[in-house]
Predict the 3D structure of the following.
Amino acid sequence: MASDIIVWGRINSSNVRKVLWCLEELGLNYEQFDAGGAFGVVDTPDYRALNPNGRIPCLQDGNFTIFESNAICRYLAKTYGTAPFLSEDPGEWALADQWMDWTTFSFGMPFRNLFWNLVRTVPEDRDQAAITQGIEHCSAQFAVVDTLLNNQPYLSGDACGVGDIPLGSLAYAWFNMDFERPEQPYLAAWYKRLTERPAYQKGVMSPLT
């Protein structure tokens, strides 16, 4: 039987990984259809009717359609989540939620430039200066996270929650790209805890390319 929840987007997109991981954590049934990149689809009239931006991911839940990966994860968490994944305390929710926006605005673009150079660009065309700058910037940002995780096991607090999903999806690439990373033990321990979660394994840990 077809699921009421449909995810549009290729599984090697970090933004799609967020949504798949969230769905898996919530134990929801869904169908995923490849779109974007080599798969196309996003420029078709039918898809543009769902997401006029022509970007991925896009999620349909019955008659409800939503795009933007963080917004999708918030929607899923608030619609289907329960404690401890979804805190009922507004303050606890806000403290988790802030890391979703932090990932997008403080970490996302420098990381994207690093990822595209190391994973999506052939070696002879890579911008080494951009790679060096990206590693330095991301390492400095991760130092903030490493300090926090010295005092709590997850970005969301005592339990893994929606606040861990955006950065956790990027952390998979960070720890699997070929370069020398600084020693950040609490960050590494957090990542290890994520990799032990079946939902993370299924939603995030697919080939980078």
Remarks:
- Helices lie at 14-25, 45-50, 69-80, 90-118, 128-149, 165-174, 185-195, 198-203.
- Strands lie at 5-8, 31-33, 58-61, 64-67.
- The first strand starts at residue 5 and ends at 8.
